[in-house]
Write a structure and sequence with these properties.
Layout: E1 4-7, E2 12-15, E3 25-28, E4 33-38, E5 43-47, E6 54-56, E7 71-76, E8 82-83, E9 95-101, E10 105-112, E11 115-122, E12 129-138, E13 144-157, H1 159-162, H2 166-172, E14 175-178, E15 181-184, E16 194-200, E17 206-210, H3 211-215, H4 225-229, E18 242-252, E19 257-268, H5 289-296, H6 298-316, E20 319-322, H7 326-346, E21 361-362, H8 363-373, H9 378-390, E22 401-402, H10 420-435, E23 444-445, E24 455-456, H11 457-469, E25 514-515, H12 516-535, H13 539-559, E26 569-570, E27 576-577, E28 587-588, H14 589-597, H15 606-617, E29 619-620, E30 623-624, E31 627-628, E32 654-655, H16 659-668, H17 672-682, H18 691-694, E33 702-705, E34 716-719, H19 724-736, E35 739-741, E36 746-748, E37 758-765, E38 768-776, E39 783-787, E40 790-791, E41 796-797, E42 806-813
Parallel strand pairs: 38-42
Antiparallel strand pairs: 1-2, 2-9, 3-4, 4-5, 6-13, 7-8, 7-13, 9-10, 10-11, 11-12, 12-19, 13-18, 14-15, 15-16, 16-19, 17-18, 20-37, 21-22, 23-24, 25-26, 26-27, 28-31, 29-30, 32-33, 33-34, 35-36, 36-41, 37-38, 39-40, 39-42
């Protein structure tokens, strides 16, 4: 069953049934101010850090799941009936309900009792606020008297403290109301210099700032007492739970339309200028009032929305493709690229599944996210790389996560995830290939954000590589540490106490358990670093990296090969994981995927054997599972992976993030049909028709899909914030379509399905627009290229030396 449809022309997904299987969400904002919004107006807003600067309150795992958000109520002042145009929270039987999730905006509307209403939510570029444009139209034959109400619930800034420290928080809430604007200033009197505000463009018939005054005793957002009564009470919050609510009365003639603009925003004052007049406790509003006045003007709000649309037109225009497959086109051109922006901004911190409290930005995660983002905003990618490198430790290791507000490593999690350092090499390499900006390697970057520890970024890469060389195990394979890419493969944890963190609990010295996956990653990173060193005229150094990479290949083939596929790891007892010798967990996707992605075993047939084994043992109609057989009980020596029931998450679930590694491996073997088949199995657009099974949004990737061992085989969870976004984008664009960035130029090497006649694409690369046409004249993958009508040798198109800004490429596959 479908709950909506794609509007590809307008780059929107249009939901037409409000009771979607799970909340189907969108993100507002793409710079510093962000919001999460569901198809029924649920969600919350924050500035930069979802834990430390949360503007509005949201309760996770609520009942209903999605309850609390940006609610608008309409009340017929004659019949006294009230409803919500967004369906939630009142859940009336609405006519023509729709939610249009677009690029950085959401429009939710409906008609009820002859009154049509739509609210457009978005965050203007370069501003720390969100705009709600409520448009109300009277479709009745007679005049209508309507009251419109806005509502939000303020969070007391630190989301974790807000949800736990009630003995304090019930006493600290403070607001000011001036000229109809509600200012939330909890803790502003002390250590904070920031506040939130909630404003309305129209004269108010009333407001409320105390939650109980608005909702009433023992009532919820579905039945606010003040809305039912038709009159807000002008309450001023003193402690308890501050909210913001406005009331506007509308007298609408038949056919008349009125618009109301609401603003929710964040503002900071200089510490020495917090109060006005000085010496009082009144917020200094001199710098925020012009911002409020500007965007309460509907014309300025409309102009800001158009600017946002043009911004996304520019970003998405960097790469556009037309293939015979609509799902490929839709995801590559719109939704996958859009999701990559969300993962870049959020990493894994704030979604409807990630609370924004327990995790910051991940070191591994954010470096991988660059693969899908760097082409859209290289300047921001550069900044992110330098931020990440500054959290690296002097050993070459790294904090696993860091807080986006402070940009400092998260001590609660720490480091010791031994794959982390190599992702910095992968991320920097992707940036260099995209931009050709070699100056980044000479940027001085601190270690652990310690002043005085600055060294060139290139040295950080050297330490990343050497980190593994000083941490090799008994077989010469890299030691796994707390975990590798699979955070749930905790071979040094040995936790038998409830409540312990599998990631941070270590009961072994970590000198035995080894990872074949990290070995494959080390080979890949070493070859990338060698190419970088070579371009810097460091020939001897480049050669040394290749020597070490080749040594590791030999170790993998000797100690990491199980006869038909690559082993996954060795445990603390020295026993094999991912071997035919194992009772459960005989074969894993990660090591087989990454070793083949890195090119290991391509010449001697082992890569082909490994991928064939993946196809036989791990591939399902809904995607490729992590391992088989699933673990049917908890193994102390395995850690969290065996704590999940079979078929879920890392225990034989379909972890969509790693499926692209298999796709890339298949393209390296020339198997375009199978690579695209695997791509299509987890493509959310291609799964739209089974939304009742899939349950998550059909326009973005989910982290995992329940595997074949699960009772809910095919059900997705944890959408949006997943490395699946970047890796699938990278796999389809750079390996299946084969439009691949290199240090020397743009490589054109498609490995597409045999039944495709070809495709066309536009790629903006280093300031040049490349118009690409690929035609299939045979079933193979050999390509002959011509550039601006002239044949060239090879498949790498170097930037034009004469300064041309547009280049035409034609490729013929045979």
């Amino acid at each position: 069953m479908k709950y909506g449809s794609f509007d590809d022309k307008n780059r929107e997904y249009v939901i037409t049934q409000p009771d979607t299987p799970l909340p189907w969400i969108n993100y507002l904002g793409c710079q510093a101010y962000f919001g999460i919004i569901s198809n029924t107006a649920g969600g919350y807003s924050f500035y930069r850090d979802a834990r430390l600067r949360r503007l509005t309150r949201y309760r996770y795992n609520n009942v209903p799941f999605d309850f609390g958000g940006r609610y608008v109520y309409l009340r017929d002042d004659e019949s006294k009936e009230f409803w919500s145009p967004s369906w939630q929270p009142t859940r009336h039987d609405l006519k023509n309900y729709s939610c249009r999730h677009g690029m950085g905006y959401t429009i939710i509307g409906s008609e009820y009792a002859g009154i049509e209403a739509h609210t457009r939510y978005f965050v203007p570029l370069d501003e720390n606020l969100e705009i709600w444009q409520l448009t109300v139209t009277n479709r009745r034959a007679a005049k209508a008297s309507i009251s419109a109400f806005s509502s939000i619930e303020f969070c007391l800034w630190d989301a974790q403290d807000d949800a736990t420290n009630f003995q304090r928080n019930f006493n600290t809430g403070q607001v000011e109301v001036e000229d109809g604007v509600i200012y939330h200033k909890t803790e502003y009197r002390e250590r904070r210099n920031h506040f939130a505000y909630f404003a309305c463009s129209e004269p108010l018939a009333g407001f409320d700032t105390q939650r109980e005054a608005f909702l009433g005793r023992y009532r919820g957002w579905d039945s606010p007492a003040a809305v039912q009564a038709g009159q807000l009470t002008n309450s001023i919050a003193h402690g308890w739970s501050p909210i913001g609510a406005h009331q506007v009365k509308l007298e609408l003639e038949s056919g008349e339309t009125r618009q109301i603009v609401f603003l929710l925003g964040y503002h900071e004052n200089p510490v020495a200028e917090k109060f006005d007049p000085p010496g009082t406790q009144t917020i200094n509003k001199k710098t925020v009032k012009p911002v409020i006045a500007k965007y309460l003007d509907p014309a300025n709000a409309d102009a800001a929305f158009e600017q946002l649309r043009q911004y996304w037109e520019s970003l998405l225009g960097v790469f556009q493709v037309a293939t015979p497959d609509i799902h490929t086109n839709r995801m590559v051109n719109i939704w996958n690229a859009y999701q990559c922006m969300a993962t870049f901004n959020m990493s894994r911190s704030a979604s409807f599944y990630e609370s924004g409290i327990g995790r910051g930005l991940g070191f591994r995660d954010s470096n991988q996210d660059l693969l899908g983002f760097v082409h859209m905003a290289p300047a921001r990618a550069r900044e992110r790389i330098l931020d990440l490198a500054a959290t690296q430790l002097p050993t070459g290791g790294a904090y696993h996560q860091y807080q986006p507000l402070t940009k400092r490593g998260n001590n609660d999690i720490g480091g010791g995830f031994n794959d982390d350092p190599h992702w910095l090499i992968i991320g920097v390499s992707a940036y260099l290939k995209e931009t050709g900006d070699w100056s980044i390697l000479d940027e001085p970057v601190q270690y652990d954000n310690e002043p005085g520890s600055e060294q060139p970024l290139y040295e950080h890469l050297q330490r990343s590589f050497n980190y593994t060389l000083s941490r090799l195990g008994p077989h010469g394979l890299p030691l796994i540490g707390r975990a590798d890419w699979n955070d749930c493969l905790n071979l040094n944890c040995f936790s038998d106490t409830p409540g312990q963190s599998f990631q941070t609990t270590t009961n072994k010295d970590g000198k035995v358990a080894e990872s074949v996956f990290i070995a494959g990653l080390f080979v890949h990173a070493g070859r990338e670093l060698a190419a970088i060193a070579s371009r810097r005229s460091l020939a001897a150094e480049a050669a040394s990296y290749l020597v070490e990479a080749d040594k590791m290949v030999s170790v993998i083939l000797e100690h990491g090969w199980d006869g038909e596929w690559f082993l996954r790891a060795y445990n603390d007892y020295g026993g094999k994981i991912g071997s035919k010798e194992c009772a459960e967990g005989k074969i894993f996707i990660e090591s087989n995927g990454y070793c083949t992605l890195a090119g290991i075993g391509m010449e001697d047939g082992r890569a082909a054997s490994a991928l064939a084994a993946v196809g036989e043992h791990l591939a399902t109609k809904h995607g490729i599972v992590v391992q088989q057989p699933a673990y049917t009980r908890y193994y102390l020596e395995m850690g969290e992976i065996s704590s999940y029931p079979p078929g879920y998450k890392e225990n034989a679930g379909i972890f969509c993030h790693v499926n692209p590694w298999i796709m890339i491996g298949e393209t390296r073997l020339g198997h375009g049909d199978l690579a695209h088949d695997y791509y299509s199995r987890i493509n959310p657009s291609a799964r739209e028709a089974i939304s009742d099974l899939h349950r998550c949004e059909p326009y973005v990737y989910a982290q995992m899909i329940a595997g074949k061992d699960a009772p809910t085989f095919g059900e997705a969870k944890n959408s949006w914030l997943t490395g699946t976004a970047a890796w699938n984008y990278y796999a389809i664009v750079q390996w299946i379509l084969g439009v691949r960035t290199t240090l020397d130029g743009l490589q054109i090497a498609p490995v597409i399905p045999r039944n495709w006649p070809g495709f066309t694409a536009t790629r903006v690369f280093r300031g040049v627009t490349y118009k690409i046409t690929i035609e299939r004249h045979g079933e193979g993958n050999s390509i002959a290229l011509s550039v601006d009508g002239a044949p060239i040798e090879g498949n790498v198109v170097t930037p034009p030396a004469d300064g041309r800004k547009e280049v035409t490429i034609k490729g013929v596959l045979s």
